[in-house]
């Protein structure tokens, strides 16, 4: 049986939590492979119970599923405990959650540096979530990071934190004029948190590969989205990891030949949080309408999301760099009630028409969308459960997107609930 990857095809916030939750009943393992608590998934269960998850895989809400925080994830120990606590208070059994021994830990100095760096950048800021994600990945790549397994060896942990703070305190104090952090205090807090989840630290790459060998299905859940990928996104306005499907292998220890399906989550329009280019962005009432109707406010930071029309250049690009086999089109219901629905089919850059993602960031910044207008629909589609029940114009919208986006539209979201989904093709079949 396969490993299945689920990724965001745009700039994140496409509704991946809902998709994972939907598939969760048919898989035995759900794994997060990159990012940290910069993510935010909202899941609404059929009984109306709503959960906002940041770090823990959405699989935690499905009984019997083992949830894994993979080696590619960066974990803030305090946040992990808070999230576990919150879930347990809502009656969720969290006993199945495992944390890779190789996952890097977000330390208090990462959060401090993230915040001061953004302030220092001023207008050129990335608009990070301020959770310490970038600085933690910097330490990982610089080979001075602290990993979950270091919680099991106090001596090593102390050595690492002292060495890190030797340097970082200089930066905090001398460059940014902030207070130095006390290494003993940092270690004591991290150890106190660590003691509460030490039993969850595991060799998850071994367990996942053994599970695949037993014939179990593993769902690898990406956070953020394709255009926030540090290699394939709108650099430098990206996150510091690889949300694209290639990252799933590195961030979990599952070999690429095991992955048979890549599901792209694609919103029926586009949103982005933070700075950076966004060709189809709307700055008018229509942008406000999409934001309000779609509830486009961040789960993690509460920030308003920037909104715009669907962009097929992005979808084709996502299909290509991720090897998408199926699309899950979300939030189609948000477009109900519009006379016409514009869809961006290409860009015009300095007078030249292009159909593919430009090679340079300069061109991405200069891209002017070329739109086709499709007829809208006025019916409430939130109760539709088959494709045929959708109004003819909504069907035509989906079919058109399918033709220009590079993969079949196998599922369609018509509301936030787990059951508000139209399945056209079995994505795990
Ligand atoms: P960081 O991941 O906090 O370093 O932020 C880098 C960029 O990624 C910023 O533009 C954030 O707004 C964006 N970002 C990070 N996580 C998410 C997410 O889950 N959804 C949407 N944007 C995100």
TrEMBL record:
Domain of life: Bacteria
Residues at which IMP binds: 13-16, 38-41, 129, 143, 224, 239, 303
Alphabetically ordered keywords of this record: Cytoplasm, GTP-binding, Ligase, Magnesium, Metal-binding, Nucleotide-binding, Purine biosynthesis
Job of this protein: Plays an important role in the de novo pathway of purine nucleotide biosynthesis. Catalyzes the first committed step in the biosynthesis of AMP from IMP.
Catalytic residues in the record: 13, 41, 140
The family this protein is said to belong to: Belongs to the adenylosuccinate synthetase family.
Enzyme Commission number(s): 6.3.4.4
Cofactor field: Mg(2+)
Residues reported to bind GTP: 12-18, 40-42, 305, 331-333, 413-415
GO process terms (BP): 'de novo' AMP biosynthetic process; IMP metabolic process
Subunit structure and binding partners: Homodimer.
Top EC category: ligase
Reaction it catalyzes: IMP + L-aspartate + GTP = N(6)-(1,2-dicarboxyethyl)-AMP + GDP + phosphate + 2 H(+)
InterPro entries found in the cross-reference section: Adenylosuccin_syn_GTP-bd (IPR018220), Adenylosuccin_syn_Lys_AS (IPR033128), Adenylosuccinate_synth_dom1 (IPR042109), Adenylosuccinate_synth_dom2 (IPR042110), Adenylosuccinate_synth_dom3 (IPR042111), Adenylosuccinate_synthetase (IPR001114), P-loop_NTPase (IPR027417)
Organism: Saccharothrix coeruleofusca
Entry protein name: Adenylosuccinate synthetase
Gene3D superfamilies to which the protein is assigned, alphabetical: Adenylosuccinate Synthetase, subunit A, domain 1, Adenylosuccinate Synthetase, subunit A, domain 2, Adenylosuccinate Synthetase, subunit A, domain 3
Binding site for Mg(2+): 13, 40
Any Gene Ontology CC annotation: cytoplasm
Keyword Magnesium in annotation: yes
Any one GO molecular-function label of the UniProt entry: adenylosuccinate synthase activity
Pathway assigned to this chain's UniProt record: Purine metabolism; AMP biosynthesis via de novo pathway; AMP from IMP: step 1/2
Lineage: Bacteria, Bacillati, Actinomycetota, Actinomycetes, Pseudonocardiales
Subcellular location: Cytoplasm
Cofactor mode of binding and number, as noted: Binds 1 Mg(2+) ion per subunit.
Binding locations of substrate: 299-305
